[in-house]
Design goal:
It is a single chain. By secondary structure, the chain is of the alpha+beta class. The chain has two domains: about 5-130, MutM-like, N-terminal (N-terminal domain of MutM-like DNA repair proteins, Alpha-Beta Barrel), CATH 3.20.190.10; about 145-265, Helicase, Ruva Protein, domain 3. Helix content is about 25%, strand content about 25%. It has seven helices and eleven strands. The strands form three sheets. It has a five-stranded mixed beta sheet. A hairpin with a 2-residue loop joins strand 3 and strand 4 (about 65-70).
Length: about 270
């Protein structure tokens, strides 16, 4: 699933363009075609097609793993889920097999939502809060101070790995960047949040931000057919490195299952206190 750096990379590419993909800011949406009805969470596919036609893309934002298209009349919220991708192309170019929603833009361009697994969703609403009201703070929010983050950790009694994956606790984290952040902070994924010290909490928040910044700087991670052009997989510390040496101590990276998610860690650098 695309995580914050991958979604942010897509957002930036749509705003400013990349290689042969032109930017779409300021472009008029002439019409829309919904090919997989369940891709539209709200309103109905028919209403979606009718309402979005004639609107202009004014800005493209992000909240956690959600993309937010600020249109001239409404807000278009998109969650890519497991396999979603957004591709700008000329209308004369061949269509792709798994195109689920297509927005036809001016100047013979279109924005195609391609989604192999069909889990991605669109919302066309007046208020983004209708969709994202339960998200936790952004990792880069200046109001998320060391003290505020420590207080959030202390307020619950949960293992760190599933807590960081909980979008209501912190928006945007996923399996890759959680494993990488915990390793950089030298914290075991099974450690309980209310046992984290103030110093460990500050180190964890700093590690989260450093790992996410590195992910954004390298355009995310390209580890399956969804991610395009990312390079962060070449800098993984522990994720998908089971049996390979830890870059810090040389111990072999291990993999366990935490909350039904494959979890990678170093048994030396990330010891679990008894």
């Amino acid at each position: 699933m695309p995580e914050l750096p991958e979604v942010e990379t897509i957002r930036q590419n749509l705003r400013i363009g990349v290689q042969d993909q032109p930017p779409i800011l300021g472009r008029l949406i002439q019409s829309a075609e919904v090919r997989w009805a369940r891709s539209i969470a709200f309103p109905t596919p028919y209403e979606f097609q009718a309402r979005i036609a004639g609107q202009t893309i004014l800005e493209i934002g992000r909240r956690g793993k959600f993309l937010i298209f600020h249109l001239s009349d409404n807000q278009l919220i998109i969650h890519l889920r497991m396999s979603g991708d957004l591709i700008v192309r000329n209308t004369e170019q061949p269509e792709m097999q798994h195109d689920r929603v297509i927005l036809y833009l001016e100047n013979q361009l279109c924005l195609a939502f391609n989604d192999t697994r069909k889990f991605g969703r669109f919302w066309l609403v007046n208020d983004p809060g209708q969709v994202i009201q339960n998200l936790g703070p952004e990792p880069f929010d200046p109001e998320l101070t060391d003290r505020a983050f420590y207080d959030r950790l202390q307020a619950t009694h949960r293992q760190l790995k599933p807590l960081l994956l909980d979008q209501s606790f912190l928006a945007g984290m996923g399996n890759i960047y959680t494993d990488e952040s915990l390793h950089l902070a030298r914290l075991h994924p099974l450690m309980l949040s209310n046992q984290v010290t103030g110093a460990q909490s500050s180190a964890l928040l700093d590690s989260i931000r450093k790992v996410l910044e590195a992910g954004i700087r390298t355009h995310g991670a390209s580890i399956d057919w969804v991610y395009r052009g990312g390079d962060f997989q070449n800098y993984f510390r522990v994720y998908q490195r089971t049996g390979l040496p830890c870059p810090e101590c040389g111990e072999l990276v291990e993999k366990i299952t935490v909350a039904q998610r494959g979890t990678h860690y170093c048994p030396i650098c990330q010891k679990l206190s008894e």
